[in-house]
Amino acid sequence: MTPPDFLTHYYENSAGPFSNLSMLSPEQAEQILEEIRRAGNRFASQRSSDYLKKRLELENKIRKLFEEKGGQPKLTRPHYMILGACPWVRDWYVDGRELQIKLVALPENCVSFTYGDSFPAMNYTDGKPYRGQVYIASELGELIRTYGLPQEWNPDGSGGPERYIEAQVWDDAPVREYIELKRRK
């Protein structure tokens, strides 16, 4: 199977695209997360009290593994996307939106991937060989040939937490036009 040739970013319309809590100061991020928890109407409202601490540690680990594979991250914290489409993710949001970017529009040295959402991909210790691993674009074909595309074999999550391949974009340049649009609103 050929990997999808695009990445999708899902986001809350009111926040705009590429709004990442871990790019904010810890105080700002915790304040926003607490507002989301109180509202209780988004997927993120279920996150634990130590979520931000764990997220930052996880991002540090992914960044280090990506650098070991030749990645050249320009950001300390990544923008999150999904390889291909995974429409049910829009349901995480009150007014979910999506945008797509062709994979060829992103330099390979600024995008890492985890097989599944990065939280279970990097934290579960169930012996699956893709746990704790970070991949680069040139490895996607073999990864998908070996394990399949999670959106296809596990669309309802009954087969485990792998429901998509997450992409971490470590550079503002490929998404700058969307960030600029958000600022102009």
Task: List the SSEs and their pairings.
Blueprint: E1 6-12, H1 26-39, H2 51-68, E2 79-83, E3 96-102, E4 111-115, H3 118-123, H4 140-147, H5 150-153, E5 165-169, H6 176-184
Antiparallel strand pairs: 1-2, 1-3, 2-5, 4-5
Number of domains: 1
Average pLDDT: 87
What's the helical proportion of residues?
A: 25-40%
- SSE order, one letter for each helix or strand: EHHEEEHHHEH
- Our Rg estimate from Cα atoms comes to 16 Å
Quantity of strands, as a count: 5
How much strand content do the residues show? 15-25%
What count of helical segments does DSSP give?
Answer: 6
Q: Record the strand order, biggest sheet.
A: 3-1-2-5-4
Shape designation: globular
How would a textbook summarize the main sheet? Answer: 5 strands, antiparallel
Low-confidence stretches at least 5 residues in length (pLDDT < 50)? none
